[in-house]
Amino acid sequence: MQPAIRTELNEMLAPLPDLAETMLEETGEFRPFGARLAAGGQPAVIDVAPTMRPPATR
Fold it and tell me: Which of 51, 50, 42, 45 is nearest to 18 (CA)?
């Protein structure tokens, strides 16, 4: 892997472990999330389902 690509990938993935830890601490579970690299090269975290709620139990 080229060094520039590795650097961008590391920058994009760096916030994900902290986000996962925060989700676990606050809710005890993970919602779907990920990261992307915008066309301009800016990393962004994607919260795939910010309003996703577990199904109601009857």
Answer: 45
Say what the pTM is.
Answer: 0.59
The encoded tokens of residue 44 equal 């962004």
Residue 25's pLDDT band (boundaries 50, 70, 90)?
A: very high
Other C-beta atoms within 10 Å of 13: how many? 13
Task: Tell me which DSSP letter residue 56 carries.
Answer: P
Count how many residues are written for the chain: 58
What is the C-alpha separation between 54 and 39, in angstroms, rounded?
34
